[in-house]
Amino acid sequence: MPLPAYEEEKISKFLDAIHADALSRRESIAQETEAFKKAELEQAEQQALSEAYMLIHKEIDAARATLARELANREIASKRELLAHRAGLAGRIFDTCRQQVAQFTGSTGYLPFLQKSVKEIAARFDSGEVILYLREADIKFAPKVVKAFGRPVGVETTGDIVLGGVIAFNQTTRLRADHSLDSKLEAQRAWFVQHSGFNMN
User: What is the per-residue pLDDT across 76-106, written as a single tens digit (0 to 9) for each?
Assistant: First the structure.
């Protein structure tokens, strides 16, 4: 038996409402899904950008560190090269000085220099038992050196003097006076390094 028209209309409206609700729910789910996918994609993009940013900064820091090491190594190498050059120049200068000292010790002016040095030592060592030390090549001057000292004094040779000059030792007072050309040249080397701009440090 067929339903009355109003019942059919009622059922039709009910079915239409269910269909509309289903369509609405489907649209809502689709929107939520799209929003979720968009949020996830944005989060993934943000994370990828953050990781890329960190990687770029890590690479930049590594490049800076490498460059700083290279520059430091170059600076050290340049400083070593400069120091070696300065040391070579200073060495050549003092080789020339040694040659000039050798020429002087072979000249007629050397004995008066020795005698003057001995007189200065005698003025300082006016008492006590004194020994004068000369290099082997200068032992021939011993009589004149003793005479210049002005009183009895011992004379011996020493390997501590290479260039020339005299070293005195007062055995009574235990004082030492170094008038060797070796020590004078070494003092000049120290002065040269300090004042010439050739500082080796």
Answer: 876 777 666 666 766 677 678 888 988 999 9
Q: How many residues does the chain have?
A: 201
Strands 165-170 and 130-134, by their bridges, are antiparallel
pLDDT band at 130 (very low <50, low <70, confident <90, very high): very high
pTM, two decimals, is 0.56
The CATH fold assigned to 109-195 is hypothetical protein PF0899 fold (3.30.2320)
Nearest to 130 by CA among 182, 167, 183: 167
